[in-house]
Amino acid sequence: MSALDLSPAPAPVGRPRAVWAHARTEAGLLLRNGEQLLLALIIPLGVLVLGRFLGGQFIGLDQLTGSVLAMGVWSTGFTATAISTGFERRYGVLERFAATPLTPTGLVLGKAAAVTMITLGQLIILGLAAVVLGWRPAPSAADVGSWLVTLVLSMISFVSLALVMAGRLRAELTLALANVVHLVVVVCGGLVVPLAAHPARLGTVVGLLPTAALGESFRALADPAAPATPLAMLVAAAWALVTFVLARKAFRWI
To answer: 41-45, 73-77, 181-185, 210-214: lowest mean pLDDT where?
Structure first.
């Protein structure tokens, strides 16, 4: 008796391939969204170029570059994630994905990978643009290590805050509120304006925000003369822990 030939023997793909496929899809959708591309890349590039030629008397190129890089991370980690997730939840996309073999965990991992890919792309493009404009970074190993840890912790807190907003509010309200919060934080959250430029008491309060922690970390990386901020990593860690727990409790799929 001859054996049955069932080739090509179809079988479900493994979890890593499924998550990677979802991450590529998420990243592609974000990049095709004009509003998200504007927030993530066009505006930071505009601020970098204008600041280089018009703001030299207020902030040096090193400090400006650090601020713009931090702003790009904030745009993707919080604003773009909140808006896209809010509309996915509204149209039932999250509910359907959660019921597929991808599972909710795979969905979250795919989103995280997509945000990471876009963030890395942002940092490369903005960094190269800054180099063309004259930025010559010379960070120490300690600055790089502190920056990497603070970046990861800040991204966790930004994405967690985005999921809390998108999981509790209607999509239209999420869209409006995310853009308002984005603008307020850029202006007043220590993201672009160094803490040293704030009045003493206000600077102390702003310094407790995760955006300020990220901004100061980027500026310390970009400018060897920038003051070290040992508390930035602790602030970022505290926010990452609190917001992650809050997101797990507050996020709703439908």
So the answer is: 41-45
8 Å CB contact between 124 and 44: no
Other CB atoms within a 10 A radius of the CB of residue 42 amount to 11
The pLDDT score that the predictor gives to residue 153 is 92
Burial 121-154 (b: 16+ CB within 10 A, else e): bbbeebbebbeeeebebeeeeebeebbeebbebb
H or E element that contains 97: helix 93-98
Instruction: Return the amino acid letter for 183.
Output: L
Q: What is the DSSP letter of 208?
A: T
What is the reported pLDDT for 230? 73
CA distance 59 to 135: 13
What number of residues does the chain have? Answer: 254
Estimate to the nearest angstrom the gap between the alpha carbon of 233 and the chain centroid.
16
Give yes or no for residue 57 having a pLDDT over 90.
no
Cα-based angle 143, 198, 212 (whole degrees, multiple of 5): 40
Q: What is the mean pLDDT of residues 48-67?
A: 79
The DSSP secondary-structure symbol of 192 reads S
How open is the CA angle 239-204-187, to the nearest 5 degrees? 75
With vertex at residue 84, the alpha carbon angle to CA 69 and CA 68, rounded to the nearest 5 degrees, is 10
pLDDT beyond 90 at 210: yes
41 DSSP 8-state letter: I
Q: Which two tokens stand for residue 206?
A: 């702003």
Pair 157, 236: CB distance under 8 Å:
yes
Residue-wise pLDDT for 181-195, tens only, equals 999 998 888 888 888
